[in-house]
Every structure is written in structure tokens, then in C-alpha cells.
Design brief:
alpha/beta, 8-stranded mixed β-sheet, globular
């Protein structure tokens, strides 16, 4: 797997497909494997997809110090520089959506279109996981029991009808075990998320934006999609009924269609 030097860190990445570049930014505790082929394969039919692991994750550089969402956005911009990509369509989910917000605000010329999935902008009206959900996740991560962490994460991030889907969970588990993320890195990502706040700045974004959110999301409740949309009145809001946080795993084909349609239609305008 190739490695790109970005300032003082190295980022592992994958690059494949044909068409204009699309940068895929993963969320907390995820890796470039988390996207899954059912979602990524249709994207590669229309785009050259660039997916990468954040600092501290996978084969990217070890985490040396705490970081902010803005610093992760600088990593994303640096990766585009290293790959000689002048601008790209940008897809960010969960924490990756927060990174995408900071990326488009700091480097508007680098973002052709923006897709924000199951994410959060901070400010009035925004809300992260409810106290019971946050406590359940905290206890699982603090236990250090890898199997328990994976199962708890799955049950929180997927909608109730699919929680007992053995095949889907087995695929999720295998990807996570192939490239585990250290507890210290997840803790640092959590602190960066809690400090994230772009609410007062989002109205400055001019890139065509699609907001996607599952209505059954327990990790980042769907109210956050409405808050982001209020700050970005020209954005398109797409709600997926009864779908959980990991919408791209629950509805990979439909999710890929939404991303493709948004990017390709806006390119033609």
C-alpha cells in the first residue's frame, strides 16, 4: 500500500478508478477498509477514488501528540498536494465530515463538490451521542476487550433491523480486525470531535454540498443534519429513513448513487 509524505507525517492511501478525483475521508476509529467494496466499487466507475488512513491509523504514522480536526484537514490538503491533485470532489463521513468542513473552509479552491455524511458542525442545536449511548461506548472502549468494543460499536452504529445480520457483522468485524485502531488514537479523535465547531463559518462554503444522514443514527443524531442544512441553505439534504450511522454499509448502492449523482450533476452545471 503506498505511503505519502505530508509534512511531518506519512499517510497510507489507496487510489483507484477512473474519472475526476474523489477524496474519501473516514470517521472516528475507521480505516480505509471500513468503506467496503459494495460502496467503493460503484464510486470507482465514475471517479478516481482516493481513500486514506488518518495519522495514527493503519500504516500511517504513529500518533505523536494530540491533534485537532483542523490539523486532520491540513493532512487531507497535504495528501492532495503529495498526489498532485489540484482539486477533488470530497466525501467525509462522521469525523471525516468534520475534517471535510475544515478542509473546504481552509482551501475552498481544492473542493469541487462536498458530501457530508452522518456528521456534526457544533454550535447551537447540535448534539453528539446521548449520555447513555456515550457511556456505553466509553465503557466498551475503556475495557480494552476488542471483541466487546467491536460488537458495541456495531450495535450503536447500525440500525436495529440489521444488528443481528451475522454476515454483515462478520464483514465489519473482519475489516476492523485487519487494521485495528489503538485506544489512544480513538481517545484523541474523540477529543478533537468534541472541540469541533464550524457552525458560524459554514455559510461561507460555496462548494455544492450534499448532506446525507440516517434517521435512526444513534451516534450522531439526525438533528445535526438539519442544523448543518440551516447553516448551508443551498445544500441538498437527503435523509435515509430508519437507517443508522453507517449508512454506506446499510445501503451501499443507494449511498454511492447519491454521491455520484451529486458530484456529476454539479460538474455539468
Amino acid at each position: 500500500m503506498p505511503i505519502a509524505r505530508v509534512g511531518e507525517v506519512e499517510l497510507s492511501y489507496e487510489r483507484g478508478g477512473s474519472g475526476p478525483p474523489l477524496l474519501a475521508i473516514m470517521g472516528m476509529s475507521g480505516t480505509l477498509l471500513t468503506w467496503g467494496e459494495p460502496f467503493m466499487a460503484p464510486l470507482r466507475e465514475h471517479f478516481e477514488v482516493i481513500a486514506y488512513d488518518h495519522r495514527g491509523v493503519g500504516r500511517s504514522s504513529r500518533m505523536e501528540a494530540p491533534f485537532t480536526i483542523a490539523e486532520l484537514a491540513a493532512d487531507a490538503a497535504g495528501l492532495l498536494d503529495a498526489l498532485e491533485v489540484e482539486s477533488a470532489h470530497v466525501l467525509g463521513i462522521s469525523m471525516g465530515g468534520m475534517v471535510a468542513q475544515e478542509l473546504v473552509l481552509a482551501h475552498p479552491q481544492r473542493v469541487r463538490t462536498l458530501c457530508l455524511g452522518c456528521t456534526y458542525c457544533g454550535g447551537e442545536g447540535s448534539a453528539l451521542a446521548s449520555p447513555p449511548i456515550a457511556q456505553r461506548l466509553f465503557e466498551a472502549i475503556s475495557s480494552g476487550e476488542r471483541e466487546g468494543v467491536l460488537r458495541t460499536t456495531w450495535e450503536i452504529c447500525i440500525s436495529p433491523p440489521l444488528r443481528d445480520d451475522a454476515e454483515l457483522y462478520a464483514t465489519f468485524r473482519a475489516r476492523a480486525k485487519e487494521r485495528p485502531v489503538a485506544r489512544e488514537v480513538i481517545s484523541a479523535q474523540t477529543r478533537a470531535i468534541v472541540a469541533h465547531d464550524t457552525a458560524a463559518r459554514l455559510s461561507a462554503v460555496r462548494a455544492p454540498t450534499l448532506i446525507v444522514h440516517g434517521t435512526a443514527d444513534e451516534l450522531i443524531p439526525v438533528q445535526n443534519a438539519h442544523v448543518i442544512a440551516e447553516h448551508m441553505p443551498d445544500a441538498r439534504l437527503e435523509l435515509l429513513d430508519d437507517v443508522g450511522h453507517l449508512f454506506f454499509l446499510e445501503l451501499p448502492q443507494r449511498s454511492a448513487e447519491l454521491v455520484c449523482e451529486h458530484a456529476l450533476v454539479n460538474v455539468q452545471l
